Amino acid sequence: MSAKIIIIENDIKSFSVPMEEEMGKVIKHFEGELIKIRTGRAHTSLVEDLLVSCYGQSPMALRNLAAIAAPDARLITIQPWDSSILNDIQKAITNSDVGLTPVTDGKIIRLQLPEMSSSRRDELAKILVKKLNSCKESVRNVRRDFNNILRDAKKEKEISENFYNRLEDTLQQITDKFTKQADTLSAKKEKDITTV
Fold first, then answer.
1. Dihedral angle computed from the Cα positions of residues 137, 172, 142 and 147, in that order, rounded to the nearest 10 degrees
2. CATH class of 13-36+117-194
3. Which label site among 18, 22, 47, 83 has the fewest CB atoms less than 10 Å from its CB?
């Protein structure tokens, strides 16, 4: 947590807003982790952040050098704005951990995604469960931190017993809300993984 939380008596938002912000960061991170799990469906996010060394300068993200599209479920096309860096882009893809072989016609690079085997789907489902559990653990850690803040405020008589009880309920409601959000995101990704 970045700033110290000051709980103001009878102002639930002084507690709930910072807590939701912290848990929101956890969910945002989880969404980023889910994008990295390849489902067998073509998506531009698989390659758009690849760093390409070209023009003798420091590496640049592929999305800043080319038009990237996913015209169908198993194909990604990359059309460099400057065809002289086509080989640089191919090299970056080949050396990355994307696991795809670039094919080019001199103007456009095509990346064909292979059919996913059932063992690979099972493997991805296990990775998904790990990432979901990690996300939920982070949500619980935020809950614990805010619970400690709450207990300290009560102990120091900064808030009343009655308000403490209300905030405890709020604490649980917010935790449940973000846990449910993580479950929903995970279920959607699981459907992507298992759908052939």
1. -130
2. mainly alpha
3. 83
